[in-house]
Specification:
Diaminopimelate Epimerase, Chain A, domain 1; five-stranded parallel β-sheet; 19 helices; disordered N terminus
Length: 575
């Protein structure tokens, strides 16, 4: 793959917590001031708050009926079941959508037999509620559709469904448009008139709240719902929503289910990937998520749902093997298209002057352009849109940089678009081919006039300074309890200055720097191990005993049956 140097990263040390509160909390919890400071930075200042943080309880989940229209949604499902109506569970084709469909379908089918599920074809139907999906429901006598992770902006198609006497319950977490669709119930905490206490649930999380509400009204014990928390955890991690508040509770308990009693489909994925260790959010993002996503990216998202609801190992292994093949194909497409995109950038003399990246190629595979957009955003650190041709239109995925709202930038070009939707950091869009050049120009103008220069330099947020001597087993044991890590609660990043190579550092693998470092002569024999991926270029200077600064997270490293604390180095600055 073509390699082009990225910009130097900016280090930003977070403001330390109030020293009085830090000192009091350290004493009350009997922990180091460094750990107490990490808690205070996260808004945790009391013993009870720390207890809730370290031991999230399902009792802390909000009452689902606090969500706008939840009473209407539950009532409509009750009516459908009492009348013997056919119900369709409809979801988006990504991880969030497929896990949501698996969850809601599994619950309803456990109490009612006239229910089926539907996932649109990414290439023939596109994102959101499709006419084909509604026609399929109509031809099968469906009178209620529960839409998950989509629908909030499908006003026209939902109106079309109403003409066929098909009702909709929408469970979405994307930003609504100016007018809500005319559904029986619209469950979306991002509605301006919704006062639900937490608005960062995933689409699957909204589906879980619907199931929770129905169970609550019908007197079904919450324990019966806990088996679905693994799906919520997978969706929350894979959809990169903040793992704070209610999401932290859901992911914490969902990970316990994944580790103690994984459903057959998840177990098949882990077996095929040769994973036997305790799972973390990172494992969901990099191992489980891509394989579930591969179905909708390459062929048919229904395969992902079939895997997630598989009743036995034989069925799960069969579905898992097919998805594994799709994931291999997805990786090859991803690598090839990323390489092509990098070449286009190299050949573009005006690229360095622009504040955004917008690339189009009519033959790029629609299923992987979102991944390519993420890779280019990470490499060049500019708001990025990757587009391809589909059904005679230009369609694409957008990814942003920290603090820049790409949804708003795209919305400012709405007169040139046929469809768009998404979040602050990720969005999708469709436009006519003849509007493509106008869109590129307009989008660049908007980004150039609204983005701050600091946003175009990748920032590493550093939680705290740390001496290497502070890294002990007791310290790390408490730090691990800050997990599950993710947006809003990232694995803490520490900074240590003036470290030196002990003489044992070396370059390994594909330009990775395996470090053994110490702060001073007295600790030279007790060097701390670290790994700095893709930083082998620093080795020659480091081995000259030149002091350098590092920022890093602490991780657990297992090798040959031995487990140790390792520094996962984010960046190195030489003196």
């Amino acid at each position: 793959m073509i390699d082009i140097d990225t910009r130097e990263k900016r280090w930003a040390v977070k403001k330390a917590g109030d020293p009085v509160r830090v000192s009091a909390l350290a004493k009350e919890l009997n922990i180091s001031p460094t750990l107490a400071n990490l808690l205070v930075q996260r808004g945790i200042t009391t013993y009870d708050a720390a207890k809730n943080f370290f031991r999230p309880s399902v009792k802390d989940l909000h009452d689902p009926f606090l969500m706008k229209d939840m009473d209407k949604a539950v009532s409509r499902i009750e009516t459908a079941i009492s009348r013997g109506e056919k119900i369709m569970v409809y979801g988006d084709y990504d991880v969030d959508g497929t896990t949501a469909v698996a969850l809601v379908y599994s619950f309803i089918s456990s109490i009612y037999d006239k229910v089926d599920y539907y996932l649109p074809d990414r290439y023939k139907e596109g994102y959101g509620i499709s006419i084909k999906g509604i026609d399929t429901a109509d031809s099968n006598g469906v009178s209620l559709i529960i839409a998950l992770d989509c629908g909030i902006k499908s006003n026209e198609t939902i109106a079309y469904a109403a003409g066929k006497k098909i009702d909709f319950i929408i469970c979405d977490h994307h930003r609504p448009g100016d007018a809500l669709p005319a559904a029986v119930a619209v469950l979306d905490p991002k509605r301006e008139d919704d006062r639900y206490p937490f608005d960062e649930l995933s689409g699957c999380g909204i589906g879980f709240k619907l199931v929770q509400a129905y169970a609550q009204k019908k007197g079904i014990p919450f324990e019966k719902l806990e088996q679905y928390l693994d799906l919520v955890a997978v969706s929350t991690a894979a959809d990169i929503v903040p793992i704070v508040g209610e999401n932290r509770v859901l992911v914490y308990h969902g990970l316990q289910w994944l580790n103690k009693n994984p459903r057959a489909g998840i177990k098949a994925i882990l077996d095929l990937a040769n994973v036997s260790k305790e799972l973390t959010v990172n494992d969901i993002v990099f191992i489980i998520g891509p394989r579930i996503n591969a179905a909708g990216r390459i062929q048919d998202a229904r395969q992902a749902v079939d895997l997630l609801i598989a009743a036995n190992k034989t069925q799960a292994d069969m579905e898992g093997t097919m998805l594994n093949v799709k994931n291999t194909e997805r990786r090859e497409l991803d690598m090839n298209i990323t390489e092509q995109a990098l070449r286009l950038i190299q050949e573009d003399s005006g690229f360095s002057k622009r504040k955004s990246t917008v690339l189009f190629h009519p033959e790029w595979h629609k299923g992987v352009i979102g991944i390519v957009a993420s890779r280019l955003t990470e490499k060049y650190y500019k708001p990025t849109i990757i587009l391809t041709e589909s059904n005679g239109m230009a369609t694409g995925s957008a990814r942003s940089v920290k603090d820049f709202d790409i949804y708003n930038a795209i919305e400012s070009c709405s007169d040139l678009l046929e469809q768009f939707g998404g979040h602050m950091y990720a969005a999708g869009l469709t436009l006519r081919l003849e509007n493509l050049e106008k869109f590129k120009t307009r989008f660049e103008e908007i980004v150039a006039t609204t983005i701050e220069d600091r946003m175009l330099v990748q920032e590493i947020e550093i939680d705290s300074m740390l001496r290497l001597s502070e890294i002990t087993e007791p310290f790390f044991a408490i730090l691990k309890q800050f997990a599950p890590f993710g947006p809003g609660n990232m694995n803490p990043v520490f900074r240590t200055d003036h470290v030196r190579d002990t003489g044992k550092s070396k370059v390994v693998g594909n330009n990775h720097l395996k470090l053994n470092i110490a702060e001073d002569e007295t600790t030279r024999l007790l060097g701390r191990d670290g790994i700095a991926f893709q930083m082998g270029q620093h080795w020659e200077l480091i081995t000259r005993k030149i002091p350098f600064d590092i920022c890093y997270s602490l991780v657990e490293n297992s090798y040959n049956g031995t487990t140790s604390i390792q520094l996962n180095v984010k960046d190195i600055k030489l003196k």
